[in-house]
Amino acid sequence: MNATEIHGILTEQFGADAITGLNTESKDPWIEVAANRIADVAAFLKSDSRLRFDSLNDLTAVDYLEPDEKLAKKFPYEEGLAVVYHLYSFDVKHRIVIKVRVPRWKDAASKTLPEVPSVSSVWGIADWHEREAYDLVGVNFTGHPNLLRILCPDDWEGHALRKDYEFPEEYHGVRNL
Fold first, then answer.
1. According to the model, what pLDDT value does residue 52 have?
2. Domain ranges of the chain
3. Residue 31 has pLDDT above 80, yes or no
4. CA–CA separation, 12 vs 6, rounded Å?
5. In 3-state terms, what secondary structure has residue 71?
6. N- or C-end of the chain: fewer Cβ atoms within 10 A?
7. What b/e readout covers 22-56, taking b as 16+ CB neighbours within 10 angstroms?
8. Does domain 3-175 have CATH number 3.40.50.261?
């Protein structure tokens, strides 16, 4: 099954408010899903007999701070963050990429992290992937059972893979290079 067919099934099930985009031009075609609907869509992707996406191969977050000219020619994008889910079905032998776009901040004034519902109850491996995306890019996965830092120390400030991140000159009295 290809991305267009999967997109059709999802749009029929959830509507255009939840399934917000389709890109078939990229090397890995992707479907965009509204952030507030990702948990429902994920459960459907796994359980529907036509789809059976039983494997979450990867979940990561991407920071699109400012358009890069070279990239923008191939893939126009807006500033913000994206959570990217790479799914595979061992039964049906097909794959798809799902993207959820969120603004850089839920509330820009207070720099509150954007929120995306957790899919760890659908695919258990998402537990670790979501913790990594939270730690390094700063996406708050609501409903996650244990959303703690996984790579940086607990008292680390900021999210090191954000493009606007400013590396501290010193950490616990040790000068950083």
1. 97
2. 3-175
3. yes
4. 10
5. helix
6. C
7. beeeeeebbbbbbbebbbbbbebbbeeeebbbebb
8. no
- Nearest 10 degrees: Cα torsion 14, 3, 105, 77: -130
Q: Kindly report the number of other CB atoms within 10 A of residue 111's CB atom.
A: 11
Nearest to 85 by CA among 52, 115, 60: 60
Give me the helices (H) in the chain, please: 3-14, 38-47, 69-74, 126-137
The pLDDT, as a whole number, for residue 166 is 78
Global pTM value: 0.90
Q: What is the 3-state secondary structure (H, E, C) of 113-129?
A: CCEEECCCCCCCCHHHH
Secondary structure of the chain: what % helix, strand, coil (to 5)? 25, 30, 45
Per-residue tokens: 113: 């992290």
- CA 31/CA 130 separation, integer angstroms: 19
Query: What is the C-alpha to C-alpha distance for residues 38 and 62, in angstroms, rounded to an integer?
Result: 17
